[in-house]
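Model: You mentioned two targets. I'll fold them one after the other.
Researcher: Yes, keep them separate.
Model: Target one:
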Amino acid sequence: MLSILDELEKEQDQVELAIAKYANAQLEPFYSKRREILKQNENLDFWPTVFKHVNVLDDFVSVEDNLILDEIDDFYVEKDSEGDKDLSIFMSIRENPFFKAIQFKKQLVWCKDTETQEKDSGFYTSPDRINFEIKKRLPDDSLFHFFGYTTSSKQKERDQNLEIANILADEIFPAAIALFKLSDEDNVTDEYDISDA
């Protein structure tokens, strides 16, 4: 019975991979268009507003990180066109109290299991080596350590980085417009707060 279930699971994985591949192909032009429109409207403060409405990141964001998040001017996620789990995360940040303007890039590449050849045996990260001028040291619990190297010996760090990557790639990036629009709803609620009446 277990072998039948194993086969069904593999079949389901193949279907999910095909769906992911199709979704990536359909959404990529939309995300590129959104990115270009946002670059033409820099005064919109789009990404800082989005990140202010993301509660799922609260456990990873230090108080100091908020000063950096206020300066995000571009955020982008590229997923593997084959529908695999591999992805690259880009974040461009204006000058802030901690460092001068910078573009972070981090890739998460899944390793193949030597027996099954499936990409499920963990991942390694490949951040771009970036030379930038540090103005002030980041706190140890800063979200922005995510953009550094992840070593295989630190399982807790790897698990946390994977969780952050999933939040950034699967929750924040695709839902950015809805998160941004929450700020308008908050402003309307504040303006017409009936609890003050």
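Model: Target two:
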Amino acid sequence: MTRWLSLLVLAASAVALTWPCPAPAPQPAPAAPPELPSASAAPPARTAADRADARRPAPAPPTRPEPWFVDDERFYQQFIARLTELAEKGECLPTEKLRQQWQRGGKAACKLAPPAAEQLSPHEVYRRALPAVLLLGSVYPDEDGTWVEGMYATAWVAAADGIVVTNWHVFSELQEGEVFAAADYQGRVYPVKEILAADKAADVAIVRIAARDLTPLPLSRDYAPVGSWVAVLGHPGDNFYVFTTGSVTRYSTQRNDDGQQESWMGVTAEFAGGSSGSPVLDARGAVVGMAALTLTLEDQGGSARHPHPSVRRFPALPPTPFSVPRAFRLPSNKSLGRHSDDDKPMPPAGPPQPPAVQMILKMAVPAPHIARLCTEP
């Protein structure tokens, strides 16, 4: 028995040694590490373009444009000096003709500029409007025949061939021999040659000055929505080219002393005497209105009183309740806004003191009422 068991063990061992076994799967060879350049390896050759780029200085970071610092006194005095020269040469529209044309009404042929397609930043609205906004002022002869300062307001260019727009009331209190001219922000002065159209109820006058190739502002034919953004560029007081922003507050209507219906657009953008005729601009730089007057609402002891505004051009005294000047006339013997202590008004002798101001409403002519006076040439 033992012999047979030994033979079986030997046979099984022989079978195990001769049976084929599967070979193990080949393993991928490890990747060779990247070769590092030797310290003595030469750098790649540089082209002429590479050498030129290396010599070219890095671009400077963008800088903001330098602002225009307005010298009000110098700007105005140079305007008056140039206007006086034009008046002495007889190049301005004579007073009597000006009055006749102002009273006749009518419409003006204007080739209006289209508005921008896209909305602009406030600075871009200002930048585009600056060359189109003018100082409109006058001189007249005094008793000795010396030309003296008259009034000033604002106007804006509606067409490149010298057609500008301002308020009707700017010409409502003419002095004998008073003549007008307009100046742009660069100090170029152009005499007023003709009043093309005027409308008292709309408070609009369209004027032609002796100028060509001006930069016009586009005029909207639509009402700006209440709540929409607006800006005003004008000349409040003795501060020229002041840019303010706000929004449209409402539209209102009332009858004037002649029984004519007036329509107004309220805005919160600031303006004051001297801003008459200033363009009210929307976010595309189009004229949507024109500054005309302000209404001062005063404390009435807890009760409201219906205001009936009056208008004065020469602010010799503090404004009467509910009104401030709509255009600004200077005393003939005073320089612009530079008064000595002797020029200050005397304080009131005693009570009553004027009531406190609660609110000042800014009123503008809506753009469609300006556009009605313009016809396509």
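Researcher: Noted. Anything on target two?
Model: Residues 310 and 323 are 6 Å apart (CA to CA).
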